[in-house]
Amino acid sequence: MSVLVYVENADGKFKKSTYEVVSYAKSVAVLLNTELIAISIGDVGKDELTSLGKFGAAKVLNVNNDKLKSFVIQAYASVITNAANKENSDILILANSFSGKGLAPRIAVKLQAGLADSAVDLPKIENNSFTVKKTAFSGKAFAMVEFNSAKKVIALNPNSYQVNESPVEATIEDFNPEINNSDLRIEVTNVVRATDKIALPDAELVVSAGRGLKGPENWNIIEELADVLGAATACSKPVSDAGWRPHEEHVGQTGIAVSPNLYIAVGISGAIQHLAGVSSSKTIVVINKDPEAPFFKVADYGIVGDAFEVVPKLTEAIKAYKS
Ligand code: FAD
Q1: Closest alpha carbon to 135 in 125, 127, 145, 123
Q2: 245 CB under 6 A from ligand 1?
Q3: Which of 29, 175, 225, 291 is a plausible cystine mate for 3, CB 3.0–4.6 Å?
Q4: What is the ipTM of this complex?
């Protein structure tokens, strides 16, 4: 028995969320007194693969196949399933990212495994029971799911587990399972990046704004604050519906769910549908001119004031602090 972790890369480099998921998987392997094996798909350099040892992966399966150059979900799911069978892994762990959300159920079906997606904590393992805490109802509640299956798939929410070093010597093993044509029914012919900015689901810091900003021409104050913090930008639904900001920035029940370490909400009222996507943020700062705005009820820090006065001052203060 072993624990297998799927490690995603972006242009050959691992992201922070990858190290989070490896650290989490290592902790699960320690709880089960077993070994952690990682599987990487794509063109990733040896140093990058070896770096996974620092977080506890004893072996890294390296799949570098031209047929998998682009993300074809059926083929990736088959390869990861194949690796789990080869390594006799009863537990597969991956990030609850865009690709992880699609892969996890497919792999669970192939392995006939139970699935806990949106996991936020280490499993509780006692007297043959194996229970995982996960978010439910768009982050409005937590659920405890108990597995009844021998095989288990866990998809970990970003920013839910701290990166921990647990160094071991990682051996790299090339793994070249056959890719069936039935798994290659589509081919990605071109990928166009919508933006070079930090991807919202992975962002540790987010500056978000709503209708209180009055119009798209005022977003410079939000972007300047985000720039000085190294944060991603987000917005409420009406803002993206009005075309003030791109739809990729819309957070909430019908948009992206984020759980950054810091979420700064500027001129957003805090409607339940908005909170559904942001309430698992570690620290929430609300800037709103209405002291009765519902967002203040879930805020860790609140500033009652006009965004057009407060935000530039905050940006200047952070600049001064950093210099
Ligand atoms: P408003 O509600 O208009 O609030 C603007 C806020 O800005 C106010 O609190 C005001 O006091 C403040 N303000 C105004 N001027 C200033 C100033 N100068 N300085 C500081 N503060 C100022 N919404 C989402 O965001 N995400 C979703 O996923 C989502 N899904 C939905 C799904 C459904 C089925 C439905 C029915 C609604 C959904 N909504 C969603 C919409 C949601 O109900 C709210 O209407 C929306 O979140 C409000 O956006 P807002 O806070 O930007 O605007």
Answers
A1: 145
A2: no
A3: 29
A4: 0.99
